[in-house]
Amino acid sequence: MFRVPALAGGSVRQGPTKVGTLNTVHYMYDYRKMTPAQRREIVELRRNQGRPWHSPPHWEFEGNRQFIISAACFEHVPVIGRVPTRMTECETSLVDLCEKYASVLYAWCVLPNHYHILIRTDRIKSVAS
């Protein structure tokens, strides 16, 4: 059995968030539709909650650790899975990257609009770049 380091206070998925005095429920990608005042308010709310302004937290890790890495296509458009050969190429590239930088590749999943990998590495910055 293996354990993946938990992110303090974080969660993998979050539902809609009620934003301050706007009393509006915002969903993914609504930021682009917000007025400048609404954008300032949501960023301030995230700051006050100690959350990243616009992206998941990225901590500095040292040593050989386990990570789950996920990435999605812009606006979750199925770019990876446009055609089956493209998904195969993406999978091959991910596995090659993991063989180069990870000591263990536990699992991976390539889907039409995102992917996940579960690895052990002491070179996470190399994997991330």
Structure in words:
This protein has helices spanning 36-48, 84-101, 124-128; strands spanning 17-19, 24-26, 65-72, 104-111, 114-121. It is flat and about 45 Å long. The protein has two domains: 17-48; 65-128. The strands form two sheets. Strands 3-5-4 form a three-stranded antiparallel beta sheet, covered by helices on one side. A two-stranded antiparallel sheet has the order 1-2. 28% of the residues lie in helices and 23% in strands. The chain is an alpha+beta fold. The protein starts with 16 loop residues before the first strand and ends with a helix. Strand 4 and strand 5 form a beta hairpin.
Please write out the topology.
Elements: E1 17-19, E2 24-26, H1 36-48, E3 65-72, H2 84-101, E4 104-111, E5 114-121, H3 124-128
Short summary:
With 129 residues, this protein is α+β, with helices and mostly antiparallel strands. It has helices at 36-48, 84-101, 124-128, and strands at residues 17-19, 24-26, 65-72, 104-111, 114-121.
Keywords:
129 residues, 2 domains, three-stranded antiparallel β-sheet, 5 strands, 3 helices
Shape: flat
Report the total helices: 3
Strand content: 15-25%
On the 0-100 scale, what is the average pLDDT? Answer: 77
Q: Quick one: biggest sheet?
A: 3 strands, antiparallel
Helix content: 25-40%
Q: Count of DSSP E strands?
A: 5
Number of separate structural domains? 2
* H/E element sequence: EEHEHEEH
Radius of gyration: 18 Å
Low-confidence stretches: 1-23
Q: Order of strands in the sheet with the most strands? A: 3-5-4
Distance between the termini: 28 Å
